[in-house]
Q: What sequence folds into this?
């Protein structure tokens, strides 16, 4: 009889609550992003000293998934709350998990000023080019020509203006130590995203400054596409507007 | 023998794992789960699974809870 040694190459991360289930729509990349955050927290052994700050949007229930301490911030104010948490608890690890509407529309002032002040926190922004939870309205990152509930003829420059490129804007701030844009459309990009999240956490631990990663995600329900077609759209349309890459690294 | 552990109560039938499996061992199921979706099934009669864990990495709902490699 051949003796075999079984080895687990993939397991549920310990930083996720036991028995929790994601309530997201089928094919939504939020689940992948939260799992990657939990995996990096596990690998860097940060679970016991982490205080996560949740935002409003599909990311609102973060405290139901992550088995860490968690604060719920008002809409857009996750980085303002994170600033207070970090300044009063310098030995803790503070991260925010926000959507694009929360980070770049309602909370743009809080977000950019946290980057300008060089707050030693890590921010993760999920960009799905729409307001997912409220029903698919046009957001600050909605790309030109995209049809949403509030732009039924497609986004045009004379009525709606232009989309914001968050990773580039954050990279322009002097307090930023790391700013990158990643995607979750393929296995290769999922692995790159995990490395970017790790780098974002490392700059906080080293005290270099503000760490930021923007993750291109999908919203199959509000894009009215299948999960497979949504990833095709990310590759074919979003990559032209939002090129992947590291925009700042000190 | 390499294999995956599938939690069918978590599967929402997005079928993203069906596309990424290099050996095409994950197929669309025919029995609905408690969510009303038709979860995927893992069929590997010839032990072709290479334990790459790409299906688990792709799954947005962590329905593939463990990948075991020998």
A:
């Amino acid at each position: 009889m051949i003796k075999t040694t079984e080895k687990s190459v993939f397991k549920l991360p310990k930083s996720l609550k036991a028995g929790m289930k994601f309530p997201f729509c089928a094919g939504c990349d939020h689940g992948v992003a939260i799992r990657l955050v939990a995996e990096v927290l596990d690998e860097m052994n940060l679970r016991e000293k982490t205080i996560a700050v949740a935002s409003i949007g599909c990311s609102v229930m973060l405290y139901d998934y992550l088995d860490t301490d968690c604060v719920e911030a008002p809409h857009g104010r996750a980085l303002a709350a994170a600033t207070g948490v970090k300044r009063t608890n310098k030995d803790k690890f503070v991260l925010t998990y926000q959507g694009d509407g929360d980070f770049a529309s309602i909370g743009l002032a809080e977000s950019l000023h946290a980057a300008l002040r060089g707050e030693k926190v890590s921010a993760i922004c999920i960009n799905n080019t729409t307001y997912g939870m409220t029903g698919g309205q046009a957001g600050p990152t909605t790309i030109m020509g995209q049809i949403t509930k509030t732009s039924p003829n497609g986004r045009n420059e004379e009525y709606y203006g232009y989309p914001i490129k968050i990773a580039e804007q954050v990279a322009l701030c002097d307090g930023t130590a790391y700013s990158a844009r990643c995607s979750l459309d393929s296995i290769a990009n999922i692995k790159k995203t995990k490395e970017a999240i790790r780098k974002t956490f490392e700059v906080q631990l080293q005290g270099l400054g503000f760490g930021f990663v923007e993750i291109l995600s999908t919203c199959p329900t509000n894009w009215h596409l299948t999960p497979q077609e949504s990833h095709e759209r990310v590759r074919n349309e979003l990559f032209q507007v939002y090129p992947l890459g590291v925009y700042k690294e000190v | 023998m390499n294999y995956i552990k599938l939690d069918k109560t978590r599967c929402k039938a997005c079928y993203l794992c069906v596309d990424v499996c290099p050996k095409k061992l994950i197929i669309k199921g025919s029995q609905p789960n408690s969510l009303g979706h038709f979860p995927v099934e893992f069929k590997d009669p010839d032990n072709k699974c290479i334990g790459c864990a790409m299906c688990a990495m792709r799954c947005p709902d962590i329905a593939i809870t463990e990948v075991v490699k020998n």
Q: What stands out?
A: The mean pLDDT of chain A is 93.
